[in-house]
Amino acid sequence: MNWIFPYIALMIWVVDAQxxxxxxxxxxxxxxxxxxxxxxxxxxxxxMCNTEAIWTIRNLLKTKPPNISLNIVxxxxxxxxxxxxxxxxxxxxxxxxxxxxxxxxxxxQMSSNEETKIKDELLRLLVLREVGKWEETLGFLVPHIxxxxxxxxxxxxxxxxxxxCFDKKLYDxxxxxxxYCLFNAVADYTALEDRFRTKLISQHFPTWRAxxxxxxxxxATYYNH
Length: 225
Prior knowledge:
Largest sheet: 4 strands, mixed
Strand order of the largest sheet: 1-2-4-3
Structural class: alpha/beta
Distance between the termini: 41 Å
Helix content: 25-40%
Number of strands: 11
Mean pLDDT: 84
Shape: elongated
Low-confidence stretches: 1-8, 66-73
Number of helices: 5
Order of helices and strands: EEEEHEEEEHEEEHHH
């Protein structure tokens, strides 16, 4: 798998009889990208001299426990694109930062259950953030946000339950389409006046027609919500 990172060069060094993949990067710090019995990948700054880099790697060889993959470079498809991932050592919820998914994986390979769990966590984080933004903008609170699989609608307004239920697989659409969809969900829940709604759409979603097309393609009964 090939990824575009701010790397300048990749070399293979032998340090203390062990083969080390050394990534020379424009970043200003040493970082372990992968570390297990099969492969060791270390990123070093372009400004670091070879002697210092070798000394650093030698210390890593002495201190890093075997069979621990600290940062496994893989990829995950979510929000209609592939993302590089970096793996947490400790178990905690996934998030996206600087175009990279940071997540926890048990072992050295991502299972299908873990993949779904990561996607669920990323979607929940996105929904809570975007709904919160519109709650603040509109001065209105959506007390309950839930998720369940719905092949027909991206969301269902549940005024009786004081909430909105979102399709669990919204993450198959692009981030831009999802954020537009989330705005519409809040606007429907709050019964936003049409003129104000149109104004906000023009300001924040100038390519809204493309988003509408994407949503209606995925959800056949979208326009019946």
